[in-house]
Structures are given as C-alpha cells and as structure tokens.
C-alpha cells in the first residue's frame, strides 16, 4: 500500500488520502484499476509459471544427468569386463597360461612369474588398480570372491564391493594406502564417528579361464578402486555438464559415495577459489543427513534441492548396490542453484520494470483522456469548499450542454444551498437559546456529581475500615482460643518426645532425625500461633531479627515443604545466585516461604514446574538487598482476585483459611520489604519478595505500600 501511494503521488501529484476524498480522483482510480489489475496479474502468472515449470525442468534435467552418471558407472564395469576378456584372449596370455599346469599338478614357478609380469604390464596399460590370476581353490577360500563365484556360473561377472584395509592388502599392498581418506565434519551432516576412512569401494570383475575341455581351474581377478579416483567422476562431469549446458558461473559436479563419505568427487572445497585455477576437491566430506536417510536408509532416489558442502545444489542421488544387493554408497550428479536463482530474479526485475513503465504510460493516457470530464467536477468541488469556509457563492451554469447530468446536478445543488442558507439562520437563533439552557443545566449537574463522588468515596473508605476492624476483632478472639487449645497439646508432644528420647537412650540414634523433625514441627506450630497473634495484635510482638544469608533459609524451607511438593508431582527448578545477607527473623521468613511454596504446588492441577530463585537486589548497580522468587505453571489468578489475595480471610480454596498471604504480607511489611505479584490466567504466577540488607521501619509504610500487582509477562 505504501508503494502504491508513492506511485500515485508522483504520477497525479496528490496523496492516497486526497484521492479517496475527491470524486474526480476516485473516478480516475476506478478507470485505471483494470489496467493495474491486469498488469499485476500478468506479473504473478509469469512468476508462478517460472517457479513451477522452470523448477520441474531443473529437476527433470538433474534426473536425466543422474541416469547418465549411473549408466556410465555400469559402462565402466562393462569396459572392465571387456578389458579382462581381451587379456584372456590375447596370444601372450594364452601362451603364458599354457605353460602353467593344471591345479592338480605342481605349477611351474617360472611360468607363473612370466604370467604375473604380463598381468602387471596389462594392468598399467589398461588403467586397472589390480589384476591377478587366482586359482579356483584360492577364490573359493576368499570370502569376498566366494560371493562372486555364486554369480559367475562359468561366465564373467562384475560388481561393486567394499573391503576393509586388511583385505585390500591381500589383493595389492598399495590399495590400502590409496583407500585412506581423512574425514571432514560437514554442515547439515552427521558428525563422523572416526577421523579416517580406511575401507575401499571396488569395481571388481571375475573372469573364469577355461581349458580346452571347458574346465575352469583359474580366474582373472581385476578391477579398480574408486577411492581418490577422479578420472571417472571427471569423465562423467564432462559428458553430462559440457560447455553450454549450464548458465554462467553454475558448477556441475559428480560424486561417488562410500556410505555417506565422498571418496571420489569434483565438488570443490570452495565454490570460487582465489589462489588456484584448480579447486581442492571435497574428499572426505559427508552428505547431508536428510539425503542420507532417504537414499541410504530408505533406498529411495533423491531428486530435489540439497545442501552440498557449503551451497544449495539441484541434486540427484541414487543408491549403489554391492554384489549382494546391499546399499553401500551413492552416486550423485547436480549443479549449483544460485546462478539459476540469479537469472530468475534478473528476469523478474526486467519484467517488473517493463510493466511499471507500461502502467505509468497507460495511467497518464487515462488521466489525459478523463481530464475533460474531471474539470467540471473540480470546479464543483471548489465551490463546495468555498461554501464550507463561509463564502456565499453558487455554481451557476457550467459550460456544458443543458442535458448533461453534471449541469442538472449543479442547478439542484444551487437550489439546495439557497434553502440551506435560510434554514441555517433559523437554526442559529434556536441554537443560541438552547446553548444557554444547556450550559446552566450542565453546571448544576457537575456540582451534584462532584458532591456525590465525595460522598461515595467517604462511604467506601468507612465501610472498608469497618470490615477490617471487624475481621481483626474476630481474628483476635479466634486466635486467643486457638492458642490456648493448641499450646497445651504441643507442650505435651514436646515433653513426650524428650521423654521418649531419654528412655530410648543409645537406641534413640536410629530415630533421632525423626524425633528432631517432630520437635522442629512442634516449634513451628508455636511460631505459627505466635505469628497469628502478631498479625492480629502486631504491637504486642517484636520478633528479633538478625543478619542472615538467604540461601540456607530457602534450602531449609525446601526440606520442610518437600511433602507438599512430592504429593503434587511437580518438578522443582532451583536457581540460587544470591550472595548478600538480610536482616530477618528466620522462623517468620520460613513461614512466608513455606506458604508461597505450598500455594504454588496447589496451583498446579497436573504435573508442572516450580522455579525457586534467589538473586541480589541491585539499584543503580549497587546491591541493596536480596530478592526471592517463587514461580509456578499453575492456573493463575484473575484480575478480580489479584487485588484481594492479601485481604484477611479471603481465599479461593475450599479448605483455605485466607490468612496465609495476609500473614506473609504482614511479616514482610514489618521488615520494610516488598511483595510483587505477576499472574496470567492459564499460564502461572510469580511471587517476588524483596528484602533489604538492613530492615526498614515499617511505620513508614502505608497499609499496602510495597505491594505490587501485575500481569505475568514471562
């Protein structure tokens, strides 16, 4: 919308808001709208066509490239068979082979030596990595060749095979060293489990050599190692991605994988190397995990975008199968995606520029063509504006045919202005009288409203004070009776525990922890009763306060409240970072923290988490105290209940007394501290207690100073 507004402002010299306000420009806009929609639709249709069909063509191309690459590998094996077949049929081989006796006789060493020299020469000339003559017994004893013997059926057989280093050394001592590839961790790929790959991927051919009677006692075993073999992938690349098949700067690459490791590739380590005309090959890098799962694990062909080393490529991957039909690697063909995207965006920009130019020209022509119609509308608008400013003018006759709709509209508008002028004079006289009466009545109503607001405020404050006084009076009477009834049983319990400990003697050590816990809880009951009395008659109690670290008190609270936490099956997360100490009464602070922790546990209906935090309270970078936070993932507190949770006897729980938070607030207030509450219904609640290093005089605080409510933001 902002872009469109700028275009209209530059073309027509008027803003979007002005165009909406004026009829002439609205007509101009509606006239230009079909052209605009047509051009925009053309842009989007073109973009859609390019995205859909160009993308399909790219995938079709890479699929065809992958087929060619795989067919080339098959041809490599076929040519390998032809090479071994040509060796076996050559006169030199047949002459040397006739000098060797059958397997049931002792072979002639000199003949074997001559044949091996011939095979070594042929191996070098034909570009094979190994070529040897092996007896039937040796082939049957080799576990790798034994798999191929079942496939030969007295005919030549070729296939792929993965061999570890020791088996490579049995064939040729140089193969094990050639197969070694250092693994390099790669983006979007699994982390390698080892630093070096020592296995080798072989294209192996087994050719039976029959005597004149058709019996086979010997085999020609030859092939090539794909590890570090760049000739194959370069030949495929030159075949598939020859000159002119890809856009400028696009790179076509081919790779052979052993499992997920690039063992033969022309993928460069850098897309555009600066220090060399021949980029380093990405040997030892790994394929992305997404491709690995689909191709090697699921055995499917990949035709899609893929992250190759450090850039996105249009890629095709096909699994490679060994002689047993097991997936052992992949063949890849693909080309870089960025040049295609660059050309695509350039085409879109060119198309957009042409369409914008056409839009501007067509809009200008429409504007010029409609100008003769819009001039009378502009004149009518000027007259209307002048009338609004207080001038007494009329439209009069327009330079148009009398049958024109705009001429009739101007005539009717002039008559309406005459009638409006007469009625305005009448309305003005009546409005002046009405204004005087309204002003008198308004002043009287304002005076009565102010008086009523003062009376309501006074009534509300009086009622609140009466309710509070009645609650405190009832609380004092209730606590006095509770204290009398509870203190005697607690004294009996405490005395009996001491007697029990004395009677058990040395055996008391077995239950000493439980006895001490009972004594502590009896002491806590006494402290709670004292706190209730303190809330109802705070002037009669003056609990001593001392400078203490906060973290040990919090940890003691967790021990006392563990039953409630375990019963609710909540997960407790502790974050204790506070380093300072504060002046508090330890039992009273324990009472506050236990109350908050139990409330947090009860607020969680099912399994949830509770965070318990302590950290230093900083102000302008200086530590002034310590803050304690109790956060839960419970049901939260509504805004209506949030402002009343610290009132005495107010509770939303069926089994609650409504005194827990009231007592807690009273304890923190007498220390000069603060309590902040942030809650969101359905998400949870955070209670934050702020305690100063040195307790402040609570007389300086009002009834609810230091108490803050708000919505939970976390």
Automatic annotation (TrEMBL):
- Enzyme Commission number(s): 2.7.13.3
Q: Does the keyword Kinase apply?
A: yes
Q: Which residues form a coiled coil?
A: 410-455
What residues does the HAMP domain cover? Answer: 371-425
Entries under Pfam families matching the protein: HAMP, HATPase_c, HisKA, sCache_3_3
Q: Give the stretches traversing the membrane.
A: 27-49
Identify the main location.
membrane
Q: Which GO terms describe its molecular function?
A: phosphorelay sensor kinase activity
Q: Which SUPFAM superfamilies match?
A: ATPase domain of HSP90 chaperone/DNA topoisomerase II/histidine kinase (SSF55874), Homodimeric domain of signal transducing histidine kinase (SSF47384), Sensory domain-like (SSF103190)
Q: What is this protein called?
A: histidine kinase
Location of the protein in the cell: Cell membrane
Organism name: Shewanella frigidimarina (strain NCIMB 400)
Q: Give the record's keywords alphabetically.
A: Cell membrane, Coiled coil, Kinase, Membrane, Phosphoprotein, Transferase, Transmembrane, Transmembrane helix
Please give the catalytic activity noted in the UniProt record.
Answer: ATP + protein L-histidine = ADP + protein N-phospho-L-histidine
PROSITE patterns reported for this sequence: HAMP, HIS_KIN
Alphabetical GO CC annotations of the entry are: plasma membrane
Q: Which major enzyme category is it?
A: transferase
- Where in the sequence is the signal peptide annotated? none
The uppermost taxa in this organism's lineage are: Bacteria, Pseudomonadati, Pseudomonadota, Gammaproteobacteria, Alteromonadales
Show where the Histidine kinase domain sits: 481-695
Top-rank lineage group of the source organism: Bacteria
